[in-house]
Amino acid sequence: MPRTTGISREHRRVVLAAMVGTTIEWFDFFIYAICAGLVFATQYFAVLGKDALILSFATVGISFFFRPIGAVIAGHLGDRLGRRAMLILTLLLMGISTVLIGLVPNTASIGVWAPIILVLLRIVQGLSAGGEWGGAALLAVEHAPAERRGLYGAFPQIGVPIGLLLANGVLALVTAVTTPEQFLAWGWRIPFLLSVVLIVAGLMIRSRVAESPVFEEVREKKARSSMPLVQLFRHHWKLVVAGALLFAANNAVGYMTTGGYVQSYATKSLHLDRSTVLIAVMISAVAWLVSTLAGGWLADRVGRVRTYQIGFVLQLVWMFPFFELVNTGSVGMLVLALVLFSVGLGLTYGPQSALYAEMYPTTVRYSGAAISYAIGAVLGGAFAPTIAEALQTSTGTVYAVGGYLAVMTVIGLVTSFFVKDRKGASLSSAPADAPAATVENV
């Protein structure tokens, strides 16, 4: 496994800031997604009867439509004002909205206003998430030595499995110390309220990080684009499409656990204990973390695109055996299925920061990376749990879900063959209208 020996103190601080910030952001994001499967259907949408769970999962997806808006805003400001300022702003937005979700009364207390407020706060989470990733990824990669961008860029990526690990861990602990009635009444609110502590820690770390040296170069040369979004879609729209499709294939598969579908299926359809299922997902989050770091490390050796292709093939091969093992109803088989599921997932996630950073000129890089990521999230993860639940309900078999995820994986694999690898390419400032050089024949 890659080691970080030889990394300067400043580089360690940057890597830590990128990783801790994304960890906090995604802890907050995943707490909602998991509770959508375990709690919100009964607390906020019970009036809909059998459709309550589908609508609860749909609220997870609604926020994704606001990610591109968050990406546009943060991308524009990040390309104009810098990466660091946007990282602090997005962290604050996510933290405040998460704490407020933990305070929203249920439908029995305030009626229809309860789900409305819940959805509005989820939208704010979506705006924050849309702008967060691009800044964290670029800060890490733009500070990195050229030969180690893949590894450095993997650190903000592992904030996602760490956030998943923490979210499931805190919920598992709360579940273990409360009765089912107490958990539904007030226990689920505890993780949302604990977010205050994490936000303070994250802000302290991020406020001490220097701005990206690549962006500083652009600022000193007064080469910043006045309209980065216009330049992005005028000259680099093919890159945006390719980046979105690559991430959609990863995101749809990842949201089987991060979006709460597997947790819901295992507890409601297979009748497994809720705490046990959450612990199983925590174990898989560790495997995802390791494989994501491995993906970044491998990307520095065989290239970003080749690493993606290996990961997509592993995703595709494991898709149906995954559901076969889950359906055994055995906790051990569930853990094995999730761990092996995480290998391909990590290899298609670890190289993403480096690949996206090398795609775009500095003047539109934040906008390009953030918008590619946000659109990919809409196409892939936005309604993946909802689609999965609907497919299972309408067909009566979970293998229909496997077919859906297999199609998404094939889309990502095919797209990867049209993307040119620019491993180690210069990240120095280039004109915003420089020709797109990373997509072939699209």
Short description:
This protein is mainly α and about 450 residues long. Helix content is about 80%, strand content about 0%.
Overview of the molecule:
- Keywords: Cell membrane, Membrane, Symport, Transmembrane, Transmembrane helix, Transport.
- Belongs to the major facilitator superfamily. Metabolite:H+ Symporter (MHS) family (TC 2.A.1.6) family.
- May be a proton symporter involved in the uptake of osmolytes such as proline and glycine betaine.
- This protein is mostly helical.
List the defining traits of the structure above.
about 450 residues; disordered N terminus; MFS_trans_sf; Putative proline/betaine transporter
Q: What overall geometry do the principal axes of the alpha carbons give?
A: globular
Q: Stretches where pLDDT falls below 50 for ≥5 residues?
A: 1-6, 431-437
| Count of discrete alpha- or pi-helical segments spanning 4 or more residues | 20
Largest sheet: none
Radius of gyration: 21 Å
Strand content range: under 5%
Order of helical and strand elements? HHHHHHHHHHHHHHHHHHHH
| Arithmetic mean of pLDDT | 86
The rounded distance between the terminal residues' Cα atoms is 36 Å
The structure class reads mainly alpha
How many beta-strand segments?
0
Helix content: over 70%
Keywords: Cell membrane, Membrane, Symport, Transmembrane, Transmembrane helix, Transport
Pfam family, one: MFS_1
InterPro entries: MFS, MFS_dom, MFS_trans_sf, Sugar_transporter_CS
Function: May be a proton symporter involved in the uptake of osmolytes such as proline and glycine betaine.
